[in-house]
Amino acid sequence: MSVTPLAKCHSPTVPLVPPVHPLPTPNGVYHTTLESDVFECVRGLVTQGLWIIVSDRVSIFLCVSPGVQATFSQQPQDLVVVAGQPVTLPCSIPGYHGVVLWIKDGLALGVGRDLSGYPRYTVIGDHSTGEHHLRIQRVELMDDAVFECQAIQAAMRSRPARLTVLVPPEDPVISGGPVVSLRAGDPLNLTCHADNAKPAASIIWIRNGEVLNGAMYSKTLLRDGRRESTVSTLYLSASNIETGQQIICRASNKAVPNGKETSVNIDIQHLPLVNLSVEPQPILEGNLVKFHCSAKANPPVTLYRWAKGGNVIKEFSGDTYEVIVDHSFFTEPVSCEVTNPLGSTNISRNVDVYFGPRMAAEPQSLQVDLGSDAVFNCAWTGNPSLTIVWMKRGSGVVLSNENILTLKAVRQEDAGKYVCRAVVPRVGAGEKEVSLTVNGPPTISSTQTHQALHGEKGEIKCFIRSTPPPDRIAWSWKETVLESGTSGRYTVETVSTEEGVISTLTMSNIVPADFQTIYNCTAWNSFGSDTEIIRLKEQGGSQKGNVLSSTETLPVAVIIGVAVGALVAFIVLMGTIGAFCCTRSQRNLKGVVSAKNDIRVEIVHKDHNAARENEEHTAMKQLMVSVSFYLCPLYAY
Asked: pTM for this structure?
């Protein structure tokens, strides 16, 4: 805190009062350091000079006239006041016309009658007669302090006056009031709290005009360090209470000597006793079911509330609920909640609903590496108990009857569609299909020979199936390798489709050497690679080649025709014999079991004509297998 003297009032013979409180006492000596000089003030030697009073709020610079004599006719006295009431602190100095300061806890409130920093504070009285009373409107807890009235020019101060502010407790509150209900035979615990009082409130319990003893009492000092909250707990055994009794909690302190009170009424009751029935059971979904909720309660029932699976059914509020049930009633219970003034009782029941399979955990399609395990999980619910069957689409073989299907060390031929089927006997069935994709090396398919015209543009294609997709596709011929883009007369373009990837090698201005070149299409992924060799053939080749092709094709067609005719005649003959044999052996026939083996034919295309011969050979082989399938059981028997 710094002080700057007024130059016009300063002289070597005028001492300074230090910027501290209280003011100098008679014959008192004070020292203060100002601009590196030490000044001494002796009250008895003052003839004129500068008095300086400084506080955190006010800095006052005054020139003092010598020889001022005054005395207090009224001084503030210690007072006790209740918060919210007004109060006046008197201060009268007859014959004094100088500045009067009011000091609160050592800090000046303002200069003279200017107390603008304290809206509730006002200096009242006739200034000309020396009246400087401090009026406080609506006393608050912050006004609890020590006040002084000081006459500056007369170097006087009043006796310190303590203003004590009392705060009545808030209205007491009994937890659970105004009616406390309890079950017969239970003890009673009542808690009453009276908060924010100064001093702390005292609490007593009263029943039938008599004070109840034995209550526990505690108080807590609040953060402001002045007010306190009080809590009292009363315990009464079951034998010491009766229904209809009134118990009063009265809280008092010096601010409210007569106290404030609240009360509770004791009501000994019982919760509703509830029974919930469901008719008929069991029942097929889609039919009507009736729920009946019967209850006994004291006091009487005031409310019925129905819910299903925790969700309130607002359309029904009586003791009966009718509804057409579905599968959800099997897993989501219907509950009836009965309420009376004491509380609620809730009871719930499931319905034994028969329903067809419903999926609880949907299986997911899988993509696994070659040689890894594939695990499908499929869960159904149904009532009565259901049966689960796992099969591969197109196959009648049952792979599992459990929720989980595990395929060990999968191969590429295991890829395909799998079906999880659930059956509830006499109720219904359901199924879910998933896919298995097996990661492995790519496979390339293409026509081994493409045709083009000399001097024109030509193109050859290869189709790549690959899981995962190919990392790289390259065309190579002679000493050239091209993956994409253009190199001379050659351009490579790659297009992705849902089925796979198509890579096209385009050649412009076909020359004779192009028909003699072997083109290689190769694809790679993280599991391996595959290669296909493709040739380019000149479109409209030599007549000799055409004749040769026809000559080579004709014998094969003739052979197929003759073979088919012979087989038809053979089938008719064997059918006649078979019918005769079956008639003779019908009595001894217990059952016929036939099996058809899967036949896998792998054709590697290396030559166009050879490919055609292989296709014709495959067709003939499949036809012979079909005939054998139908005839062999007869001879086997």
From this structure: 0.39
